[in-house]
Efflux RND transporter periplasmic adaptor subunit
Amino acid sequence: MALPRADEALWYTVSAGTLEPTAMGTGQFASAKQRLVASREAATVGQLVRRSGERVAVGDVVLRLENPELGIELEDARRALTDARDAFAAERASLALDEIRARSILLEAQYEQEVKDADLKAYRALLEKGVVSRLQFERAQADARLAQSRVESQVASGKASASLAQSRLAQAEARVIQQRERVERIEGRIQDLAVQAPESGVIKTVFVDLGSSVQPGNPLFSVGPESPDLVAIEFPQGYIESLRVGMPIEISYNGRIAKAELASISADLRDGYGSVEARPNGDWPTASIGMVVRATVRVDRIEDAKHIPVPVYGMDWSGRVEVLRKRGDIIDHVILDDVVELDGYLVFPTSIQAGDQVSFPSMPKRLAAG
């Protein structure tokens, strides 16, 4: 490019020294404790009870959803529960009747065994006296064994029948529990249609309108505290690399100055600015979410910084900067990628030395001078 004559350029002499810059930023009070409430059902918004900005207590209904299909499901579930209870009652009655029958049969078998045992005892005595034959005695003995076998068989059969009946009863009871839980789930879903505030605070945003259709997971509203618990601040890009978590920050707002501490630094830079968050070191009287603040933080001192006063405030010094560099009698054109604006100074990289003179060919002389 054609270089301007030296007498036409506005030159700045580069100095070397220590800078103790103060970073200045702007932002607003905010809160990190906001909670987003989402729909649990596929439904339609039937009523908006609260609006954005209104105060709520935990449990207050914020909006009501409508889903007629849940009412139909609930009636079906209640009928199924009634049927399951009837089936359980029938199984229990059947079990009781089976137990009575089994007990009666067992008593008959036990009575027959006692009779046969008595006969056998009598035949044994008669056999010893020679009144009955050995054959008659053995027949009585066989009858007694058969009667005992019938008792044992009835006991085993009764146990098996009782076990089977108990299994059927347990299955019937399980169906009752299953249907009751189904009813309770649907009733809970219906109760969830009256969407409540999960905590006390202020309704921040309502994301739906009356009549809106929502699906599970769709946001309905957000709620958060009335008082801020952080400050969201934007600093010029040149300060971001000098900031550290834990640095003290002064927050100015509404005629007050409050102390805070740098809590986080965002790695994302937008339009020459970076975002940070600060937490309070005490109370923030009269502070409210959304209130604008100014922030001041003393950053690390820079030793042997090559710098000049910023020629024009408000210009974009981020990115590549064109300068004319005059070193002795030599003037050349230099592109700089890492010029930093700090506290009213431009700080240069190593390609600019103390004693050099710099000018900005893209800046009109009258603008620079003004």
Summary: The longest strand covers residues 256-270.
